[in-house]
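ok trying this again, last paste got cut off
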Amino acid sequence: MSTGERDVTTRLRDALAHQTASVPAPEDRWEDVEVRAGQLLRRRRWNRAAYLTIGLAAAVVTVVVAASALEPGSSRRVTTVAPATSPQTPVSRGPGPGPETTTASPAPSTSAPQPASAFHYQPLWPFAGEADAAGWQARYRAGGQQPWHLDPATTAISFTTGYLGYADINLVVDGTVGPADAHVAVGYAVPSTPNRTSVAAIIHLVKLGAGADAPWEVVGTDDSRGISLAAPAYGSRISSPVAVGGRITGVDESIHVRVLQQSSGSTPIGDRCCVPAGGTDTAWATSVGFAGARDAVVTLVASTGGHLLAVERFAVTAGRR
């Protein structure tokens, strides 16, 4: 027994002796005192061990939580959102660019991928990569050319009406914008129903490049409007013909698939129409051939409609050659 434990035993004996002295008893039972003192000592040792165990467990939990927070996000193309601590502001609903700015920016002369050390998505439109975006930044800083690249809402509408060629999808219905990430719901006015709009897709955009004037780039869509484009996998290598597919909810749907590249503007390099589909969260699949691909990244878009407008919903993904 250590000196500290002997001191504790002595103090316990003295305290118990004082208590039992005031109670009539035939005799002091020091054996009981020692038993009780031993029990208290064992309890004290257990408490020390318990505190140590709880402390270690808390440390383990802290490490696990920290590790979880550091894990990379989902590989889905639209899992990136603005940080919880970032301010969320409504998407601007200002007018879009004039006709001269609705077409894609000139593509680089080479189809080789442009390195993007900090850009973890596929650049679909309007820039072919960071070098292309930096070229626009230089022109903007020198003369203020095409300031609409700084507005995610205008960029999203230009993407649908200009690059995709969906003239009726010309409204920004809703959305959120963070420091470097935006989700813009684009749609249309429902015919014969005043003040009613319908969302056709949610465009995912991120800032491309560095600096406060880094432009917005379309990188895909959120698959949340009853039509998805899950194959090919986002950013995967593709060749012609490419198998495409996803899921759809609707009645008497007709799915139109196209393959686009920036250097060809809104003229498709592949086209497949039309795939009958319908039901509730039902799988659909087809294949589409394409020719004349020059760009490193191509856009695949699946659309459906025919009830109110030719195109009422669409989904977009990216493939690499």
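PB: full thing came through this time. Residues 2-6, 15-96, 98-117 have pLDDT under 50 and may be disordered.
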